[in-house]
Amino acid sequence: MILIDGKQTAEDIRLEIAREVASMIDKGIKAPHLAAVIVGEDPASQTYVASKEKQAKAAGFTSTVYRLPAATTEQELLGVIDFLNDDPDVDGYIVQLPLPGHINSNTVLQAVAPEKDVDGFHPVNVGRMALGLPCYVPATPHGIMELLRRYQVETTGKKCVVLGRSHIVGSPVSILMSQKGTPGDATVTLCHSKTAGLAQIAAEADILIAAIGKPGFVTADMVKEGAVVIDVGIHRIEAPDTKSGFRLVGDVDFEAVAKKASMITPVPGGVGPMTIASLLQNTLKAAKKEIYG
């Protein structure tokens, strides 16, 4: 069994980007500028944005974070987005989700200029992705595809089952896996909570991507011998035997499934680190005007 090391792969990507950014600066080209907007004090969001800022700077980027109070109105937030859309120095930016309940996330995400939407959530980028056109692919699906590519997982003609239909992971990765390319060209089944016979369908997969949002949902009997298993889930569960009192687990029962899988991503250290690496890749593309010219 091969452990797919997302942490090391993400570090490799960051170093590749850092070398390219250093070369750009040597040629008198400005460093890519990634900005983030966070509203409120959600601890997980604060941690995630701090990590993005740290890794962006480590890659040689300029990084700016706009921290807004939870009481910020939707109109005030849209004003910040207008400012970032118009700022020629900012190449790409993200609006950290979730937003407070009084702000409509869809309204906000649609206000982001598509050419600066390095999270890949704007309908223009989603539509371009669905059509196979150049776009900013959402960070987690992008990271999954990068892991499959770098670990040379054979996907052509393979049965791929995706568990979960979210707009952030499940739906986009199912589209990407079915498109022409490497990785890609797979026969994809997208399952969700209302899929009949889900366990049986999962057990036929050559490549199983679990993004269903339930800890330990995928058990060994749901996995084909020799399958490649990508675990997107991350959950904090109580663990009195640990110093912190909790531990992180994924959507897959790792210990049991690892005995059957040919390759598997751990949690933590699998798909998670790839998300920020993909965000950096998208921002570099934005700085180089690769997608929108």
- Give the strand content: 15-25%
Secondary-structure element sequence? EHEHEHEHHHEHEHEEEEHEH
The largest pleated sheet is described as: 6 strands, parallel
- Distance between termini? 43 Å
Helix and strand composition category: alpha/beta
As for the number of domains, it is: 2
Q: Got a strand count?
A: 11
**CATH level 3 topology of the largest domain:** Rossmann fold
Q: Using the coordinates above, name the CATH class of the largest domain.
A: Alpha Beta
Radius of gyration: 19 Å
Provide the spatial order of strands within the biggest beta sheet: 1-11-8-7-5-6
Tell me which CATH architecture of the largest domain applies here: 3-Layer(aba) Sandwich
CATH H-tier superfamily of the largest domain: NAD(P)-binding Rossmann-like Domain
Mean pLDDT: 96
Number of helices: 10
- The amount of helix comes to 25-40%
Unreliable runs:
none
The shape is: globular
